[in-house]
Automatic annotation (TrEMBL):
Gene3D superfamilies: Glycosidases. It comes from Subtercola boreus. Belongs to the glycosyl hydrolase 5 (cellulase A) family. This is Glycoside hydrolase family 5 domain-containing protein. GO terms for molecular function: hydrolase activity, hydrolyzing O-glycosyl compounds; transmembrane transporter activity. The keyword Chloroplast does not apply. One of its GO terms (cellular component) is plasma membrane. Residues 67-221 form the Glycoside hydrolase family domain.
Length: 415
């Protein structure tokens, strides 16, 4: 069988999506904080392990990659983009820092574009993760472009600019990436050079950290290259599809495109019915396995901390985040480990079901997706001359109705 790029892409994503879509989620109900007394007893009994730790607020960084196009915007446009990033919960922005923009000649710098971006990010409480990209003509290998991809003549030139950048924005840019996807021509034209790239990293790292010791410096992430084997691309696509399947209802598309247009509603509702029943059954069965294992592990944690059997049992039954934060740090860590150790086996139990779903998906016939709306396919839509005639009729009816309304002429000033 001949595999085209499109067929590889479709097969990889679809296979992963079917597996991902089969994962059954579950949730745990949170107990009332009013029943915290048994936990307090358990915490007091465990005081010999560690002094009680203060409550902590967990933070979860959320990043947005803005690229370099934002640097072309006005100050207002930059601020609007950053405001949206902050509003949606972002905490860090990934930004392309274009060397050839900022240092057009060996002795001149123009920081205006980047300066607006940094100031806007600071105002919005956002950290910056900058990728130092491109190369100005005066520093490029051979003295020519394309400037966005050409490698510099020497690693020292790149490191010198990186040091200047870190000096100017010390404490204001949190992290730096040394180019991106350096194994491709798009990053180090004319050809990838691992030895030269390693020299760039070795030269840029001390230059940046000397100027800003608090900054994080990372090497560029690798990307697919022309020599990447097909099997590895398929693995990557499968992984992507497994994640996509969790949010994209692949089975619904299969069902809707397997029946005539007049039966789409029935087919969709039938699929939803079995999905709801299956979800409820899955949560009940696998949730029971999880909670049973968790209860045993939590009993062991509280009993080991010195609580009586009764207090340990009540503490296990009434545990919630608020009371958990009141426990000593050592006990908190053991509780977290108990949750992790109880949850992981549940996913192993799901593997046989996912394997069966994956095998069954291989027997699904290839069906061309519908390219028309449901009403059009069912002959219910009004189109063409019929639509125009209907619109004309509606306008005429509206005109007649307005003409039939009583006149409401304004009264004269004399009245």
């Amino acid at each position: 069988m001949h595999l085209t790029r499109r067929s590889i892409l479709t097969t990889g994503i679809s296979a992963g999506a079917v597996v991902g879509a089969g994962v059954v989620g579950g949730g745990l109900s949170r107990a009332s904080a009013a029943a915290a007394a048994p936990l307090a007893a358990a915490a007091q009994a465990a005081a010999h392990v560690q002094a009680q730790a203060p409550a902590r607020v967990a933070s979860f960084p959320v990043g947005f990659s803005l690229g370099s196009n934002i640097l072309w915007g006005t100050t207002t446009e930059i601020d609007q983009t950053l405001d949206i990033t902050s509003y949606t919960g972002g905490t860090i922005v990934r930004l392309d820092i274009m060397w050839y923009w900022l240092q057009p000649t060996a002795t001149t710098f123009d920081w205006s574009r980047l300066g607006d971006m940094v100031a806007g990010a600071e105002a919005g409480g956002l950290s910056i993760f900058g990728i130092i990209l491109s190369c100005p003509a005066w520093a490029a290998l051979g003295g020519t472009g394309p400037l966005s991809t050409t490698r510099p003549r020497t690693a020292a030139l790149y490191a010198a600019f990186a040091g200047q950048l870190a000096t100017r924005y010390r404490g204001r840019i949190a992290a730096y990436e040394i180019r991106n996807e350096p194994n491709g021509r798009e990053a180090l034209a004319p050809d990838p050079d691992p030895v030269f790239y390693a020299a760039m990293v070795q030269a840029a790292y001390p230059a940046i950290t000397a100027a800003d010791p608090a900054a994080t410096v990372v090497a560029g992430a690798l990307g697919p290259a022309p020599a990447t084997p097909i099997w590895l691309i398929c693995v990557f696509l499968f992984e992507f599809g497994a994640g996509l399947g969790l949010i994209m209802q692949v089975v619904v598309l299969v069902v809707q495109n397997s029946v005539p247009a007049t039966q789409v509603g029935t087919a969709t509702s039938t699929n939803n019915y079995f999905r709801e029943v299956g979800s409820a059954l899955g949560v009940a069965v696998f949730g029971a396995l999880f909670t049973s294992s968790l209860s045993e592990k939590l009993l062991a944690v509280f009993s080991g901390a010195g609580a009586s059997a009764g207090d340990a049992s009540q503490a296990t039954a009434t545990l919630d985040p608020a009371t958990l934060n009141q426990l000593p740090q050592a006990i908190q860590d053991q509780v977290v480990a108990a949750y992790a150790d109880s949850l992981a086996p549940v996913f192993w139990y799901l593997i046989p079901f996912l394997a069966v779903a994956f095998v069954l998906s291989l027997f699904l016939p290839q069906i061309r997706l519908s390219d028309v709306a449901g009403m059009v396919a069912r002959g219910e839509a009004v189109t063409g001359e019929e639509a125009e005639a209907l619109e004309t009729e509606q306008r005429e009816a509206a005109r007649v109705a307005r003409a039939a309304e009583p006149s409401h002429a304004p009264k004269s000033r004399a009245e």
